Amino acid sequence: MTTPLPQPLARLLIVDDEAAQMTAMCHTLEDKGYATTGYTSPSLALVALREREFDLVLTDLTMPEMDGIAFLRAGQEIDRNLVGIVMTGHGAIETAVEAMQAGALDYIQKPFMLRNVLPVLARALTVRQLRMDNIQLRQTVAIQELSTALLNEHDLQSVANKVADAAFQQSNVGAASVLIAWHDSSELHIVAARGHGASDVEGRTVPMAAALMKWVAQTRAKLADAGTWTQAEIGYEDFSFDFGIEYLAGAASMPMLAGGDFVGILNFSSGSPTRAITLGQLKTLSILAGTAAAALQRQHAEQMREALTVRLQGANRDLTTALKEREVLLQEVHHRVKNNLQVISSLVSMQARKLPPGIYLDAFEEFQTRVQAIALIHEKLYQSQDYSHVPFAEYVRTLAHYVFEAVGSSHDQITLDLVIDDITLPVDRAIPCGLLLNELMTNALKHGFKDGRRGVVRVELADEGDGKVRLAVKDNGNGLPADFSIEHSDSLGHQLIQTLAKQLDAELQIENNGGVLFQLRFVAKS
Mind listing the domains of the chain with CATH numbers? Predict the structure, then answer.
């Protein structure tokens, strides 16, 4: 007996205009159990995306034919569930932000180290699986809603139309049709069809020959084991029949069975002639076929209504369980990210202790506070019941006191004044806003009172209504040079302030009068 080959961990599409690097990446990841396909041309890679499905795409950022960001955008027009990872030799914040905005989940830097690449792939596959699970859940709910709607239909044609519509609306479906077996007829009637050529086949008939009924009997046995189907054991060819009609050629077909009676056949074809029908689509088709059969078999309406109610309750329980599992997963992700950032912060602190006072030590300390600002976001999310929004008022208070202590400011010299409204921000607004607050407070505390003078640093977070937020950091210290211009400043902190303000699409106001005021206004929601 031949042992079946192990299934790959995932199907990867790798795009890099440097052939040697692309080939090396393909071979390395194949050795780790991935199935890889590589291209040096983004255009050819897009052709491959149209022809077959990939779990992840790894694309170089800078390519002469098409940059990685443009490639990702084009790829997501083909497959909206595509998960992309950008490969770059540039580590700039602007590069990472732009890549994420274009739809990349993550990025890895060249030269590649396998120990860095594999965790990124694992995280991306987790996200991909969550997305596909969400699609399956939405389809399940849609089918259950269709079941309820069909119970209220008393016209057979209306039922058939709704079933055909539901099948046609499934992901990557190019055509769908419903064939009904009348009780007093020896033919199947095509009563509803969708897709190209549908109008030419509606009303046509197919003889219920012995070969067809044999196929129905064989398929009935396969449907009994639908819950255990796997991609290696079940494929499109297991559910195909030659009806002798061109419109139905290449379609996957499911017998509609109700109470053991053969009611008809539900068919659909792939939306792409080069892409095979997937196992998930076959499962969806089998569920749709069962739902349609129940509605079409009028004499079992009451019995089927009770059965469908039970199925709906089960689907709701499954949906609730899945949502709880996602909440646990998100909580664990934030917890691990926070812990990993704390480890990085500790390592930076250990290294900084070995440096003498000076610019290198200052740089290490500034980096540590930036890492801590991000870690604190994930800590607040981990402690919260809402994993998509940060209780930002509480976050500002905690971060302000942390920066005050980290910079080494004295309460005898500098007073910290916090005026904070109760505001929550989505994660994608909270992280850049937290980094901004860190930079502004660090600058005020380190540079505003160098001569030992006493003073006040005031932090304001205000809800201005209409979904707008104002963040301000003001001090009455030494002030900025008279000719100061943030656009021409070579300070990394000032460059970060500009970059993060642009990311928030914030209005940045700077006043240099009796101290310094940095004030930003931005929309709270993304």
Answer: 11-126 (3.40.50.2300), 153-296 (3.30.450.40), 306-375 (no CATH), 388-523 (3.30.565.10)
